[in-house]
Every structure is written in C-alpha cells, then in structure tokens.
Design goal:
Length: 671
C-alpha cells in the first residue's frame, strides 16, 4: 500500500510538471466547480434569471431593427448652395479684418478665417468661380471675396509682414548709427568740391558740363565718428534722383554760393528738404571770392523761410570755402551735433533693410547697386528681396573699394548679387527662404505684366478731342548708363510733351544700344535716344541699312535740346502775316518787253523786293501777287522806305489801276 501522504506529494509533483495549457484547463474546470457550488440549491432560479436576460436581449435587438428605418426617415435633407453660403457667412465674424501678405493663396486666406476648405467651396460654386486652393490671390479677387462674405481684408507687402512678425521694442532702444547726409544745391555752387575736400580725393574729373552725373555714397570719419554722405546730381532735370536721396537722409546740407546767392535749384532744394522733414544746415560757400556777400545770402535765405539760429531762427548756417577748406571742420562739427540731438539709432538685431540709390550693369560683375542700409546687419551669402527682383549677396564693396564680409545699419556700399536690375528707391529686405521670395517676385512681376496689358480707357469725349486736335506721336527708345539716370530721362522727356505732340516711349533699357533696339526702331519708325552709352558693333550695319536716327549725348541738357528739336519738327507750322508797308499807285506805265510798271509812293513802312502784296481797291482786296521788281530812278533796289517814290513791278500787274494801294507783307512762323 502507498501511504496517503506520499501519494499527495507525488500528485503535487505531477501537477507541477504538467504542460501550461493543461494547467489552464484545470484551473478553468476548478472555477466552474466553484460557481456550481455557489449556486447549489438555487439552480432553478439561476436558470430562470438567465432565461429572462436572454429574452430581454432579444427584445432589444428587435427594437433596434425596428427603429433604424425610422431614424433614417427623419434625417435632415442636405443644405442647398445658398443655405451653405449663408451658414458660411455666420461662421465668419462680421467686419473682421484680415491682414494678408502678398502672394497668399486661397488656403492661406481660409486659415486666416479659421474655417475649412470644404466650408468655402460652396461659395465659389455658387459664384461660378473656378479657383485652385494653391492659386495666389490677386487684390481684386480678394476684395470681391471679402465684400461678399462681409469681412475686411488688407494686403501687406513682404516687407510689411516682417514688421508684424517682429516684437515691439521700447522707444529709444537700439545701437547708435552714423548720420546720413545729403548735399543739395544749385549747379556749380561747389557740392563736388566740398565732398572732394572732405574725402581728400579728386572726383571733379568725373563731372561733365559742371554737373555730377551719378549718385555716390561716401563715408568719412571726423572726431572718431563716422558720417555718410550722399552726393546727389545738381542739374534740375535730376530732381527725381535728388528726391530719392532726400528720402533716406537724416540731415540735408544746402550749399549756397556767397557770390551767386539763392538760385532756382536752391529754391527747389529747400522745397525738397522741407518735404523730407529733416534738419537743414546751410553751407555758405565761396566766401574766399572777392564778390562774395554772406549777409546778402543770409537775407535771401530768410525770405525763403530759413532763418539763421543766431538771429532767432532754427537753421544753422556755416560760412565755408570748399576750395581752401575754410570752415569745413566747423561744418562737420555741426553735422555731428545735429545728429547727436536727433539720437539716431538702429536695431542691429532686426532683419537687414536698406534703400537702393542707384543700379547699373557692369561687364564681368553683372548688376551692381548702390545701397544705404537702414536696419540690421547684411552679410555675404544672405538672401534678399528688393522690389521686383531678389538675389543673394555675392560681394559687398565699400566706398574705398574694399571688399567687406558684412555691413551694419548706417553704411553705404555697392552690392553685387541681384537677379535683375532694381529701381532707385526700392526697399532691400533680408529674407531667410529663397523659395518664398522667388514666389513673391514672380507674383509681383505677373502683377506688373497684367498692369501693362490693361487697355487704356478713353472717354468718347476724349477720343473726339484727340481726333480734333490731330495729335501726333513721337516714338522714342531710351537707353542710359544706369537705372537711376534712365528714370530721370523718362521723366524729363515726358515733360516735353505738347498739346500737339505726345511722346511714346516704346522701349527702354540700361547699357549699350543693341541689335534688338535697332530692330525695334526700324519696325516702329522710332528714334533712339542714348545717354552716355555706346552702340553695339553688331548693330552698326543695320543702323546704316535701315537709316535709323540715333542721338547720343553725355550731358543732359544737350540731350534735352535735341529732343525739343524733334518735337518742334513734328508740329505743323503756324504762319502769320506781317505787314511791312504800303505804297499808293500814282501812275501806270506799260513798257514793251517788260510789262506793266506802277509808279508809286511809299506811304508807310517800306516795300521789299520778293515780298507778298495785296492790292486794295476801294477798301477791298482786289487780288494778291508778289513784287517781282523794285526800282528807284532806274536802279534796282532791295528795299525802299517811306516817303520815296519808286517803280513796282508785280507778277500780276495787268489789273493795276491808279489809286490802288499795294500792301506789302511777308509770312512769319509763330510756332
């Protein structure tokens, strides 16, 4: 016999060695035994309870099957397009203002409105507008959407959007920057000589006709402090470029010659300075000349609203001699003092921002622009956007020709790296993403192209007036050495239009006169106007074969004189009769082989051989003719004055009678 204890031990070991699944089955069986024990004596009730639960479950299933069709029947019908649009309008807060950066898409607008694409699609379906969600929105389309959906929209440029992204800074914070000074004044009053003395270099040779031809930016140091000078052209035709210079300046130096006093460009410069709302310092130049009159100049300036500070006004006036350097240090001291009072500062942590003063194409370098930086720091390799172009900083060259790796606010420099020519006055702004600025530039160029393609709208009255006037059109192609000069040239040429001649600029560009320019002139019968440019050798044969008229000058006012002559040549001349004198017919002589000769006495003015004549009889013009011969005592004469008698022969003299009055006149061109 096996002992019970030993059996229990062996059973336990056997159970432990069983596979895992057998153990689980055994445990489940044990759990079932436990449940049955718990229900011992209550099995009938348990069975009834289970049966009841089963019936309830079946009843619920039946109810669900019955209710489902009912629910489908009461489901609301889909909204119509009109109702969906009304619902969309309720979702958008009324009169909400949306700031939308340029080149934004429909997706960007939807995100700004805090709605979904599917919510706005019914609106476009109702209007019949086929618009892609990734299509850039034009201002016209965005305004239409805003008007229909009752919200306000404002387009902002890329440059403006950067301002909104920047954090607000406390007033007065920033890094001190050097003052930017513009020198304005009348031609030949000494602007170039003054800058020449300050920089200790000779740039006078770059002038022609006494007029600076380009804008330059120069940096100087005085008392260990930097000053940036902008040298603007002095001729009145360059008012456009002077205005661009005044736009970025902190202080304006108005240079007035003490021997000439206030001149036309001086008055214009004062007006520009007042419009720019910047401090004016007057430099009274040429005090070393014998006929200099400083007091008279001060008095003339006070009549123009510039009253000297020592006389109770607020304008600093410094007598100087730019040629000898007298008073120039005092002038620089006053510039630094004025700048210190202005507390000029720049945020070097802000994105770099500057203004283009000039741009041009140079062989081997590409597009070069003169830039004044106003905010931040610009480094080599930075991307930037500038008007309708963009680029990457390839090189930065200072005013002394030194290559720089970076420039800070308040600096003037030459920048290389533009994809296309920027225009003077364009804002240059740093950009992180090249792809984003490419998209913006493409959008801007497309907008400009669409603007050019827009047809000109004329009223019926305007068309009739145009027809009645018989207005002629002078087609021109303009070429200049730089973009800034080209803009000035365009502006000056348009000002020469008259009531009878309209100037139509059909082509323009920077650089040499090319083959394409000549082809355009040939097909359009245009004249090519060039300012300080050359002719491409490839174009020379076509110029000769097509007989193209080309005018090239290096001095502005000479070029404008040529254009005035072109316009004058297109105007139909207007003639006026100018009476020279009168002669009374005293007697008629008929001479064989000669014809009829009228013996006359000159009663007023004088008579002239070859002049036109009207025969007046009894107060009426009998006929007209021309004086073919004029004699005094058998001698041929060119003119005979009042009081003398003479013999007059006319081309038509057979009708002459005694007592007739011969009125002598000539045709004079009045315009």
């Amino acid at each position: 016999k096996i002992e019970p204890k030993k059996f229990e031990r062996k059973e336990k070991v056997k159970k432990e060695t069983l596979p895992l699944k057998h153990k689980i089955i055994e445990e489940e069986e044990e759990e079932e035994i436990v449940d049955l024990k718990a229900l011992k004596g209550k099995s009938a009730k348990a069975i009834e309870e289970l049966q009841r639960q089963k019936e309830e479950e079946e009843e619920r299933v039946k109810l669900r099957k019955v209710k489902k069709p009912v629910e489908e029947e009461v489901k609301p019908a889909p909204l119509s397009l009109k109702e969906q649009v009304e619902k969309l309008k309720e979702m958008i807060p009324r009169d909400k203002e949306i700031l939308l950066p340029e080149a934004s898409t429909l997706r960007d607008l939807v995100e700004k409105l805090n709605i979904k694409i599917k919510d706005i699609l019914p609106f476009f379906m109702e209007k019949g507008w086929n618009i892609s969600i990734n299509q850039p929105l034009t201002k016209e389309l965005a305004d239409k959407i805003a008007q229909e959906l009752n919200f306000q929209i404002k387009f902002i440029s890329f440059e403006e959007s950067l301002k909104f992204q920047e954090k607000k800074k406390e007033k007065g914070k920033g890094t001190p920057r050097p003052p930017i000074v513009t020198i304005l004044g009348h031609v030949d009053h000494g602007k170039t000589t003054l800058i020449d003395y300050i920089r200790k270099t000779k740039i006078t040779a770059s002038e022609e006709g006494g007029i600076t031809q380009d804008i330059g930016v120069y940096e100087v140091t005085h008392n260990d402090k930097k000053i940036v000078f902008i040298d603007t052209p002095g001729h009145e035709a360059f008012s456009y470029m002077r205005a661009k210079g005044a736009q970025v300046t902190d202080i304006i130096i108005l240079i007035v010659a003490a021997d000439d006093g206030v001149m036309p460009q001086t008055i214009e410069s004062i007006s520009l300075a007042k419009q720019a709302k910047v401090p004016i310092i007057v430099a009274i130049n040429k005090i070393d000349k014998g006929n200099a009159d400083v007091e008279r100049t001060i008095q003339q300036l006070s009549q123009r609203g510039l009253i000297r500070d020592t006389m109770g006004g607020d304008t600093v006036m410094v007598p100087i001699s730019a040629l000898k350097g007298t008073g120039v240090n005092d002038l620089l001291d006053m510039i630094l003092l004025t700048a210190e009072m202005q507390e000029l500062k720049a945020d070097l942590e802000a994105p770099a921002k500057g203004v283009v003063l000039e741009s041009r194409k140079e062989p081997g370098r590409g597009i070069v622009a003169t830039v004044i930086l106003q905010e931040g720091i610009l480094k080599k390799g930075d991307y930037f956007i500038c008007g309708s172009t963009y680029g990457k900083v390839r090189s930065i060259i200072g005013d002394r020709g030194k290559v720089l790796n970076q420039v800070s606010a308040g600096s003037g420099f030459e920048l290389v790296g533009f994809e296309d020519l920027p225009e003077p006055g364009d804002i240059l702004t740093y950009a992180k993403d090249e792809g984003e600025i490419k998209k913006i530039v493409e959008f801007r160029k497309e907008q400009q192209r669409m603007e050019r393609l827009k047809p000109k709208v004329y009223s019926v009255e305007g068309l009739l007036q145009f027809k009645d006037e018989g207005k002629k059109v002078l087609p021109l192609i303009l070429k200049a050495e730089s973009h800034g000069t080209l803009e000035v040239l365009k502006d000056s040429v348009k000002k020469e239009e008259t009531e009878k001649v309209e100037v139509n600029i059909i082509g323009e560009g920077v650089g040499a006169i090319s083959y394409n320019d000549v082809m355009l002139a040939s097909t359009s019968k245009a004249t090519i106007i060039g300012f300080r440019v050359k002719i491409d050798p490839m174009a020379q044969p076509l110029i000769k074969s097509e007989n193209i008229k080309i005018i090239i000058k290096s001095i502005v006012y000479e070029l404008m004189d040529e254009i005035k002559e072109l316009i004058k040549g297109m105007i139909e001349p207007v003639w006026e009769d100018k009476t020279l004198g009168r002669a009374e017919v005293l007697k008629i002589f008929k001479i064989p082989n000669v014809g009829t000769i009228a013996g006359c006495k000159v009663v007023s003015g004088y008579v002239k051989r070859g002049a036109l004549a009207r025969i007046i009889r009894e107060g009426q013009v009998a006929f007209s003719s021309r004086i073919s011969s004029l004699k005094y005592q058998k001698e041929d004469k060119t003119e005979i004055k009042q009081g003398y008698e003479c013999g007059i022969g006319l081309e038509k003299s057979t009708e002459l009678k005694e007592g007739d009055i011969i009125e002598v006149y000539e045709k004079v061109r009045v315009e």
